[in-house]
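Example record

One chain of 181 residues, shown exactly as stored in the release files.
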Amino acid sequence: MIGFLGAFVVGMINTFSQKVRPILAITYAALEGLALGVISHVYETVYPGIISQAIIGTAAAFVGVLFLYRSGRVKVTPQFTRAVMGAVIGYLVLGLVSSIAGAFGFGKGYGFYTGGTGLLLCVAGVALASFFLIVDFDQIQKMISNGAPHEESWRAGFGLMVTVVWLYLEIVRLLSILRDR
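Predicted structure tokens for this chain:
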């Protein structure tokens, strides 16, 4: 819990900071690594082999999306970016509502896992995280093309790291749901 709360606080400070602070990205990575290590251990205890599957799935999604972006098969337009951002906001609101309902005894109390929509929500989460990778790749490419200062690479790396962590967590959730069925 300390890792996630610390990573969240450091992540928010880093996200809204005007100045690039590499130490915040490193601190975030350490705290997030602590949190992911604990979560991964718990999932691995309950579902043996799930973490290696999630790592392979995350790497495959990353490489596949990078290939689609670099080959030009996926173009990032302003409409694409708005659609992804809107979908992410909708996904977060739906997840919050679902979690609150679960906390008050509606459904099974699993937040995102309630009812028959849990699997669909996880698939949507994996898809959204993958689409967000495309947006991240495009932003990095634009930074390079526009000759952004070298320090900005820390900001780009931080954003990419956050998205990869999100993708990994969504894949772990999806695999755990599939194993429970």
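Notes: The chain has six helices and no strands.
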